[in-house]
Amino acid sequence: MNIDRPILRRCVACRQLLDRRQLWRVVRDHQDGVLLDAGMGRSAYLCPQEACLEEARRRKRLQKALRCQVPDSVVEVLQERLTLQRDTAAEAR
Questions:
Q1: Is the pTM higher than 0.85?
Q2: Domain span including residue 76
Q3: End-to-end alpha-carbon separation of the chain, Å?
Q4: What pLDDT score does 2 carry?
Q5: CATH code at position 69
Q6: Nearest 10 degrees: Cα torsion 40, 41, 42, 47
Q7: Confidence check: pLDDT of 1 > 60
Q8: Domain presence at residue 2
Q9: Three-state SS for 35?
Q10: What is the DSSP string of 5-28?
Q11: What total number of domains does the chain contain?
Q12: Phi-psi map region of 22: left, alpha, beta (phi>0 left; psi -120 to 50 alpha)
C-alpha cells in the first residue's frame, strides 16, 4: 500500500471525491443503530458544509446510503458540529 496516496471517499450529497479525513463519517452499526465517526459497519460520508448537510437532509441521502432510518438526533449533532466549526473559524480570523 502506498502511504503517500490519500484514501478517497465520496460525499453522499455533492458527490465530490475527497480525502476521508476531510469528511464526516456516519455509520450504521448492527447493534447500536446510527453512530458518528466510530465503529465498523456500513458507512456514508458527508462534507462538513451547510449545503451538503441540507441536501442530505432534504433528499434523504444518508438514509439511502445507510439503508436505514437516520434519527433526527444524528442530523442535529452534525448541525452543531457545523456551527462549532464555523464559530472557531471566525475566532481564528
A1: yes
A2: 8-92
A3: 39
A4: 62
A5: 3.30.1230.10
A6: -30
A7: no
A8: no
A9: strand
A10: SPPEEEBTTT--EEEGGGSEEEEE
A11: 1
A12: alpha
Nine-digit cell string for 24: 464526516
- Tens-digit pLDDT profile for residues 28-61: 998 889 999 988 999 999 999 999 999 999 999 9
- Listing DSSP states for 48-90 in one string gives SSHHHHHHHHHTTHHHHHHTSPPPHHHHHHHHHHHHHHHHHHH
Strand, coil or helix: 34: strand
DSSP reduced 3-state for 38? coil
On whether residue 80 sits in a domain, the answer given is yes
In a domain, 61, yes or no: yes
Give a yes or no: residue 3 inside a domain: no
pLDDT tens per residue, range 13-31: 999 999 999 999 999 998 8
Q: Which three cell numbers stand for residue 84?
A: 462549532
